[in-house]
Amino acid sequence: MSDVDVSAIGADRVVLSQRGVLTSFAWLSLRNGLLNLITLTLYRFWGKTEVRRRLWATTYLNDEAFEYTGRGVELFVGFLLALVVIALPFLCIIFGAQFLGPGMAMLVILPAYLFLFFIAGLGRFTAFRYLATRTAWRGVRFHMRGTARSFGLAWMGYALLSGITFGWFWPAADRRLAGRLWDGLSFGDRDFQFRIDDARREPVYGAYALSWVLGVVGYIAFIGVIFAAVYPQMKANAGSGAPPVITLREMITIYSAAGGLALFYAVALSPFHAAMLRSIVTGIGFQDVRFRLRLRWFDMAGLTVSNIVLLTVSLGLLMPFVEARTRKFLISRLETTGEFDMSAIGQAQGLRPRTGEGLADAFGIATI
User: Fold this and answer.
1) Which long-range contacts link 31-40 to residues 24+ away (Cβ below 8 Å)?
2) Could you give the CA distance from residue 253 to residue 225 in angstroms, rounded to a whole number?
3) Most CB contacts within 10 A, which of 13, 34, 149, 290?
4) What are phi and psi of 245, to 5 degrees?
5) Contact between 204 and 279 (Cβ < 8 Å)
6) Calpha distance 307→319 (Å, rounded)
7) For residues 20 and 24, what is the distance between their CA atoms, to the nearest angstrom?
8) Mean pLDDT confidence for 291-299
9) Strand intervals (E) in the chain
10) What pLDDT score was predicted for residue 2?
11) C-alpha span between 281 and 292 (Å, rounded)
């Protein structure tokens, strides 16, 4: 972490650090896993809250820890609302469309699936807003401006443009969407700023081109392995007309290829993910404070692959441990320059959302 010489009277330097002991999160992972098993995963809302509370309490700004004020019941109620209001009606529409003719079914199903892009953006925004409004430092809360609807519409439009361009618009879209989130964030009565021109100084398209090509090559190789595994069965049954029967050996080959593809993608996409994170962090500013992330693609690849292995071996139980080590990894590579007057910041005005990130949890959207 870079140190900044502070000469302005009343100004404070900015030093972020993560001081959590990773072994404590390993034990927390096992406890949460056991309680989720006993309660048939119902405990996950309170377990997630406890993980966040510990993560925030071990994250320090200038030797003072952040505070997480969210509650498990908020996440539970938010999940139920999203399930009843959006998820169940969506599933009913998809199920009911099966009884219509092919033409009518397409007229119903296509808009419904386009609506999923809107829901994805809606979920991202509400999750970010919930985390922001439940975070405090020195008693001062973060606040979020903007609406989930406008963010969801932007996400849907950008996703469609990315599909039309075979994914090549997504780097620009990803940066713009991040700008919408960070530009709407406030700490107390002071606003964050996202400077898109600064973010663009960190190139991303070269890394994206490499990841895109590697992704296509990996997918073609995966299809080739699957075809080679089932071709002998297809050839043997060609004369009889009987459908091929997947043997245990072929199933092992297919699942092994899928696991290998996941690990390959973790490495192949790392150049782009690292470049995008550097770009977004470079664009973020607060008063006179600017940020920089020292993150190379092989650092990102090592973190992602090791996280996948940990989650696979533990059947997902080590998720809190993975979250803690990821936060520690990123914060240790974060540099700051500039200063701000902490004593001049007042409390933010505005209502906080009463429920948690229900859409993100109901639709499996990862929170930030």
Assistant:
1) 32/317, 32/320, 33/316, 33/317
2) 8
3) 290
4) -105, 120
5) yes
6) 9
7) 8
8) 96
9) 12-13, 16-18, 59-61, 64-68, 135-137, 140-144, 185-187, 190-194, 284-286, 289-293, 334-337, 339-340
10) 43
11) 6
Answer for the pair 131, 123: CB distance below 8 angstroms, yes or no: no
Domain spans of the chain? 86-128+143-188+355-368, 190-313
Which stretch of DSSP H or E encloses residue 205?
helix 205-236
Tell me how far apart the alpha carbons of residues 118 and 124 are, in angstroms, rounded to a whole number: 10
Backbone torsions φ then ψ of 184, nearest 5 degrees: -100, 5
325 has a pLDDT exceeding 70: yes
Q: Which two tokens stand for residue 286?
A: 């607060």
Q: Is the pTM of this model over 0.85?
A: yes
For the chain, first and last CA: distance in Å?
Answer: 22
**Phi, psi angles (nearest 5°) of residue 21:** -90, 120
Residue type, 127: A
CA 120 to chain centre: 11
> pLDDT tens, 305-315?
999 999 999 99
Place of tokens 């900044």: 4
Q: What is the pLDDT of residues 109-120, one digit of tens each?
A: 888 888 889 989
Dihedral sign from CA coordinates of 186, 286, 138, 356: positive
Query: Which of 310, 323, 303 shows the shortest CA–CA distance to 47?
Result: 323
CB 176 within 8 A of CB 151: no
